Structures are given as structure tokens and as C-alpha cells.
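Hi F.,

I've been meaning to write this up properly since the lab meeting, where we talked about keeping a consistent format for the predictions we share between groups. The idea is simple: the sequence comes first, exactly as it goes in, then the C-alpha cells exactly as they come out, then a line or two of notes. No screenshots and no reformatting. I'm using this chain as the first example so we have something concrete to point to.
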Amino acid sequence: MKSLVYAGLGIASLWLQLTLAPAIGLFGATPNLMLLTVILVGIRWLDPWLFVYGALIGLAVDVLSHGYLGVFGISFFLVSFAARYAGVSMYENNVLSTAIVVAGLSLLEGVISLSILEFLEPTVPWWLWLFQKVVPVS
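Output, unedited:
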């Protein structure tokens, strides 16, 4: 039953990412709603299948981004570990602490994916990708 919930959530977030996210993006930066679902599911539901969900959602983003296959899969997988750890260790479960954790984990995902891209393509400066791709979306 839990796998059906994850599948439905993944399909819904994919649909929202493709239809709604470009419409609500500001100044050309579209929010990554699929990453947001991985982080929020990790904070709220402490389920062991979260890591598989994060990797599969990351692979879906990889397929849609037309970049290197596996970069977002690995980064979403690692962020799901951090989200679960943050969900376990949060003392107060209010909106402010959740927003701070989501912002931090979003930046962490950007740093992880940029580190992988820097490893694969060392000619592009790392700081340029960080301030042009990660910070506006986070």
C-alpha cells in the first residue's frame, strides 16, 4: 500500500513539475517541486523506502533535464538520507523549522549535483554553476 502512495506522489509531483512549475517560476528560475516532495516526505514520513523514492524521482528529473543520467538520481538519493536524519532529529516540528530545513537541504542537493558535474566536466567553474543554477532555484 505504501508503494502505491509513493507512486501516486511521484506521478503527481512529476505532473506538477511539468505543468505548474514553469508557470510559477520567477525570472526564469523554475522551482524543483520534485526535490521539494523528496525533502518533505523525508521530514514528515520516516519510512525506509524514502531512499528508493528519492533515487527514482531523481532519475525522472535526469530524464527530463537532458543532462548526465544519474546526477540528480544520486543527489536526490543522498538528500533523502539527510532529510530523514533531519526529520528524526527535529525537536520542534513547526513551519519555520521545516522551512529552514527545506532551504538547507535544497542548497545541499545543489552542491552535491554540482560536485558530481564538476567531477564529470572540470572545465566549467564550480562557483559559476552555483550562482547561476542552484541559488536562484533554492
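Notes:
The mean pLDDT is 77.
The CA atoms of residues 18 and 64 lie 9 Å apart.

If this format works for you, I'll send the rest the same way.

G.
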